[in-house]
Design a protein that fits this description.
five-stranded mixed sheet, binds zinc ion, alpha/beta, binds 5'-O-[(R)-(carboxyoxy)(hydroxy)phosphoryl]adenosine
Length: 337
């Protein structure tokens, strides 16, 4: 079974083909961030126009480049939400038109389910149920993952998402958008313990997060301090440390609360090396299995949509030609469309 996946929820145009017998057949990404850098963040109108400009050509080129026959595709999976409405509409329209012309069904995929299940692509040892830590530019959530499509929210950020906090502090430190990975690089030169930032609500019994207070705390320091390279690196180091300490503590708490043995970490921020190191140490110490996907699959891509499309297609069957987008679409509200 072959599924074409299309991802256009934000500013990355991602496409891929996943075959359940062979694995990944192709995977292509057009990253728009250089267009949005100038504005310090994603401009929705620009993002949708760019998707429109590149998507059809990207798909056509992929079929030619990898010598894949369009008629061998069984269904087209596209991101139907959550995301920017204009960007989602471009992907949904193209996916549905192509599916119509090939007389095959569409599969509407939730972007967050795409992130959540990506680590399973390579790590076949991952078994449900597990705790999912989803850390991206728009979400910070702890999920009780019972099965494909069956998720329960354990906790989430009460304000800023963790990726958003990384991006805001990175911007104040003079780094380009999206700043998470550049901030992490800068942090490598930081002196550990030079600053001491708060670890927000780390000791609270619930599984929620809050990053806006930390962001304000750090912004005030950035405004007060003389920002030479070393000082910027010290700030980046302690910010990364504070955020990752909270993510690790809450993940551990969730595993203990549910008495689960497996933690699956996904979303753009899960590419962060320090987060990976700390979660792996926690896993070793408390005898829990911790899984991530390859760093390049942590951020938005078409492969996660093709893969989850395939899982849903096999599990739920009876898919039709459907077009819809849901800019707000909770992981706990997945239906078969
Ligand atoms: O999952 P994603 O590609 O997009 C959303 O669905 O939001 O996540 C993007 C976020 C951005 O905020 C980016 O700064 C962050 O992931 N990010 C990182 C790293 N790589 C990407 N944050 C911290 N460390 C990284 N290495
Ligand atoms: Zn994403």
């Amino acid at each position: 079974m072959r599924i074409l996946g299309i991802e256009t929820s934000c500013d990355d145009t991602g496409i891929a083909i996943y075959d359940d017998a062979v694995g990944i057949l192709s995977d292509k990404l057009y990253n728009q961030s250089h267009f949005h850098n100038f504005y310090g963040g994603v401009v929705p109108e620009l993002a949708s126009r760019k998707h429109l400009e590149v998507l059809a050509m990207l798909i056509e080129t992929m079929f030619q480049e990898f010598n894949i026959d369009k008629s061998s595709i069984d269904a087209i999976a596209y991101t139907a939400g959550p995301g920017l409405v204009g960007s989602l509409l471009v992907g949904a329209t193209l996916a549905t038109s192509l599916a119509f012309s090939l007389n095959i069904p569409t599969i509407l995929v939730n972007h967050m389910e795409g992130h959540l299940l990506t680590p399973m692509l390579e790590r076949t040892r991952i078994k449900f149920p597990f705790v999912g830590l989803l850390v991206s530019g728009g979400h910070t959530q702890l999920i009780n993952a019972h099965d494909i499509g069956k998720y329960e929210l354990l906790g989430e950020s009460l304000d800023d998402a963790v990726g958003e906090a990384f991006d805001k502090i990175a911007k104040l430190l003079g780094l380009n958008y999206p700043g998470g990975s550049s901030l992490s690089k800068l942090a490598k030169s930081g002196i550990p313990g030079y600053f001491k930032f708060p670890r927000p609500i780390i000791n609270r019994k619930d599984l929620n997060f809050s990053f806006s207070g930390l962001k304000t705390f750090v912004s005030n320091i950035i405004r007060k301090e003389k920002l030479n390279f070393q000082m910027r690196a010290n700030i980046a180091k302690e910010f990364e440390n504070a955020v990752t300490d909270v993510l690790v503590a809450k993940s551990k708490q969730a595993l203990e609360k549910l008495n689960y043995t497996t933690l699956v970490v996904s979303g753009g921020v899960s590419a962060n090396t320090i987060l990976r190191q700390k979660l792996n140490s926690m896993g070793k110490f408390f005898h829990r299995k911790v899984f991530f996907s390859k760093p390049e699959w942590c951020t938005d891509n078409g492969l996660m949509i093709a893969y989850v499309g395939m899982l849903r297609f096999k599990k739920f069957k009876n898919f039709d030609l459907n077009i819809a987008v849901f800019p707000k679409w909770a992981l706990t509200d997945l239906r078969v469309i």
